[in-house]
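Look over this one:
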Amino acid sequence: GGIFVNRFIPYDENMPPEKAEDFAFDIPGLTPDLPPTLCMGHPAMCETLNQAAIAAGASVNRGVKSIKVQSGNEPSVSYRLEDADVTLRPKLIVGADGRNSVVQRQLEFEMRQDPPHNLLGGMLVEGKTSWPQDAFTAGTEGNIHFLIFPQGEDRLRLYLCYDFDDRARFTGPDREKNLLQAFRLKCLPMGEEIAQCKPISAFHSYSNEDHWTENPTKPGVVLIGDAAGHCDPITGQGLSIGLRDVRIVSDILAAGDWSEAAFEPYVDERLDRMRRLRFAGQFVTKLRAEFGEDARQRRARASRRTNVEGYPSPNPSALIGPEVLPAEFFEQKTIDALMAP
């Protein structure tokens, strides 16, 4: 259900399409041993992971209701499944239940968030286009920031990021049609073809602020993935964050100590990782999802300084991992230099 893409093409209103294609780059070439980017739909990925868990010996129960959790030295989980009440008393509860996490809310984890900046949403479409199946793009024209990810065969995943003032354009019964029309862009050579595609999922948008907690653990409980906080989705880090959380927490569990103190390395690593990703996401939002002439010129300056003059930028962290770049790439002076008049 997934495909790998190797190239990024920076289509944008600041350059004609052929110039953007000259600036395309191969993702595996960014750093040694970097694999291509995986494009895979959320339902297919969830089912793949479910089947892998079952094959490894896990029990997967669907349709549970009335979930209640308790932390402490003897944590517990209770729920209702097929008209039966179930109570489990595990050694550890791992809250991996997404942005609206029941575990996070019931146990009153302290969550922080930034003010919302834009609205962002995606839609899966199908149709014959000449879009290359080995490339994705992210760019800005007019009053929208757009992203395109191939999904294999004749399918594309389209995203738009736009101001709250444009909310009415992308709500209501015509929202899918209006989203497709929005891709008729001068900077996008296949925009007309994309506008003729057929929506095969609904389009819904949501605000793109950051959410995080500084400590995703309590006695007998650890949060991972979106339940522990998520970055502005403009850089699309949700799955990467979740899978890294799984790896780090799994390594701790495999060592045999399941106490709250044993998860301190995870707490520290995640706190700095999310700080860096939050910084990079705020930079990308400022750069690509603010509109008008001043924003266009600012984006042109930053692009020239990054791609031609070699200025440091936190932007690659979304592709290569935030820990790969030096710490100074995530300092305000770096952003000020990129965006200075």
The chain has a mean pLDDT of 95. The longest helix spans residues 264-288. The longest strand covers residues 119-126.
